[in-house]
Amino acid sequence: MKRHHLPAPPLPAGRPLLVVTGFMGTGKTTSGAEASAMLRLPFVDLDEVVARRAGRSIPEIFGGEGEAAFRTLERAAVADAARLSGTVIATGGGAVLDEAGFAGLSRNAAVVVLTATADELARRLAGKGGRPLIDAADPGRLAALLDERSDAYARAGEAVDTTGRTTADVAAVLAARFRERVPGGAVRIDVAGPHGPYPVLVGAATLRTAGEEVRAALPDAELAVVVSDAAVGSGAAAQVAASLSDTGMRVERASVPAGEAGKSLGVVDDVWRRFVELGVDRTSAVVAVGGGAALDTAGFAAATFARGVPLVNVPTTLLAMADASLGGKTAIDHGGAKNSVGAFHHPRLVLADPDALASLPGRDLRAGLAEVVKMAATASPLALDVLEAMPLDADGIPADLAWIVEQAVRMKAAYVAEDAADLGLRHTLNLGHTVAHGIEGASAYAVPHGEAVAIGLLAETRFGESVAVTPEGTASRLEALLTRLGLPIAPPAGVDARAIAAAMGADKKRRAGRTVVVVPAPGGAELLEDVDPAAVLSFLPSEVRT
Ligand SMILES: NC(=O)c1ccc[n+]([C@@H]2O[C@H](COP(=O)([O-])OP(=O)(O)OC[C@H]3O[C@@H](n4cnc5c(N)ncnc54)[C@H](O)[C@@H]3O)[C@@H](O)[C@H]2O)c1
Fold first, then answer.
1. CB of 356 closer than 6 A to ligand 1?
2. Fewer CB within 10 Å, N- or C-terminus of the chain?
3. How far is the CA of 316 from the centre of ligand 1 (A)?
4. 191 lines ligand 1 (CB under 6 A)
5. Residue among 466, 391, 462 at smallest CA distance from 432
6. Ligand 1: which residue has its CA nearest to atom 37?
7. Calpha distance 292→319 (Å, rounded)
């Protein structure tokens, strides 16, 4: 079995972080959590992350392995936090001492250093356990530690004195600091493309201003053809068409059948004919509105008509926002094979409005979540922590879809930037897909792609653990998260391992007849070549194996 390391790439900036740091007892965790509620952003406490990862409390880590071991764990947590965006992060009191690590965390962040007078800190910390560096019997130690760290705190960010203030007061100041730093409206994430970077705008109400954004991205376009999935024709597509009309552009419409049925040569032929009728040329804009299937079809039509017409993608499913709308792949299904005819054609602009997801059935939404979990498993470990803690609505859907879309776009954009032609690092995105494609084939596509990815992600991760590439415990954690999100972890009865193995044999990801599998690994993923499919499939949950 050959192994290739696929390192997690640097992620493009999204919304800034709000980083709350300061000496122990200044209220970083409490005020940070309260500020996150005010800002409606997720909250991560890095001391808690360290303790959870180590499986023991911080005093236990200090007592057992010493401060250096704690600092190593803390450095890793800080580095992972720096990969998030739009999140409130409370650090441990000593995180500022690692200047390089803290600089990484601060790069795109509003940093607030909470302070308090020595007397107030002594009062707050009196009788409280769990502070391994402070000895209650030695009051001089607190003053000495404060003194030792004062320079590092002064360099770290703007100070906010908490002496005599309630945590709610302090939280309001933190929230105000963040709002000063972060402009309202959509977040812009740039994705590398052949004509330079193109923007993905993620934010509520983005569709209402679609016209202005298309105008800005394609100033010469006078004709816009909105090609939409029939399921979104009267909703998102109508909204986009109205906004385009408001800018004075000539706006025409075309429709493709909903879902996978639209990804056919016949449908593309219809779209090409409509383009001829409307006088589309290379100065026009094709605005694709819908799920991944509609974007693939409209994108392929735009890629091939007149040797390429500028494309704007307006994804309306989570999967399309997180994945299909950016990266330049367009395709139709042909001769019974999925995505077998296609072209690379990057959009000039992507508008991802989480409000468009309101009408999406829960099952389709969950399918997108599987792809987000898959990317986080290799590119943003702390995003998994946030998803584990994110409140769910009455239908079991995570509350903060805008945050999820933002992280997903940043992760996908990073792989596209590193590997535009899909020849190397982007293979990381195939995690879970070797088994998933087998399940889709064996079920004659009755198992939706995202559900198959959830099942494949788990089986492939368990396989990774069995060959000592994936850290132990990764699979059980993913299993709990996928289950929490309402995703299946086993194929349905009747889709057995033998049929899955046969379908895996036809997978286009095979290299020279050998099965390849991507598994999570420290610092990213590993591509394992020449893998025995039966060995991977032995990790499908036993109740459905035959
Ligand atoms: N090009 C790429 O890089 C890429 C990446 C991943 C997947 N894909 C492709 O994407 C397709 C899957 O995409 P998908 O999961 O978005 O499925 P989909 O496009 O089939 O959409 C799922 C269903 O939801 C409906 N729908 C879409 N938006 C809606 C909304 N807002 N409200 C209500 N209904 C809505 C659609 O009509 C469809 O019935 C596959 O064909 C896959 O091959 C392409």
1. yes
2. C
3. 8
4. no
5. 462
6. 258
7. 7
Tokens of 107: 């790069």
The best mutation among 260, 364, 369, 437 to test binding of ligand 1, ranked by most ligand atoms within 8 Å of the C-beta, falls on: 364
- What is the structure's pLDDT at 497? 87
Q: Which of 142, 9, 12 is nearest to 427 (CA)?
A: 9
Helix H, strand E, coil C: the string for 2-34 is EEEEEECCCCCCCCCEEEEEECCCCCHHHHHHH
Give the model's pLDDT for residue 543: 53
Please spell the DSSP secondary structure of 25-72, one letter per residue: TS-HHHHHHHHHHHHT--EEEHHHHHHHHHTS-HHHHHHHH-HHHHHH
Q: What residues does 194 pair with on adjacent strands? A: 196
Distance CA 243, CA 250 (A): 11
- For residue 142, what pLDDT band results from cuts at 50, 70 and 90? confident
Give the pTM. Answer: 0.95
Q: What is the pLDDT of residues 415-430, one digit of tens each?
A: 999 988 888 999 999 9
Report whether residue 326 contacts ligand 1, using a CB cutoff of 6 Å: no
Q: Is the CB of 360 under 6 A from ligand 1?
A: yes
Ligand 1 atom with the smallest distance to the CA of 331 is 1
Cβ–Cβ < 8 Å for 457, 464: no
pLDDT class for 545, splitting at 50, 70, 90?
A: very low
**pLDDT one-digit tens code per residue, 82-107:** 999 999 999 999 999 999 999 999 99
Relative to the CA of 259, which ligand 1 atom is closest? 20
Answer yes or no: is the C-beta of 293 below 6 A from any ligand 1 atom: yes
SS3 at position 332: strand
Q: CA 317 to CA 448: how far, in whole Å?
A: 14
AA identity, residue 111:
V
Residues 211 and 247 sit within 8 Å (Cβ to Cβ): yes
C-beta of residue 401 within 8 angstroms of C-beta of residue 354: yes
Which alpha helices (DSSP H) does 126-259 contain, by range?
A: 139-156, 167-181, 210-217, 236-246
What is the per-residue pLDDT across 236-284, written as a single tens digit (0 to 9) for each? 999 999 999 999 999 999 999 999 999 999 999 999 999 999 999 999 9
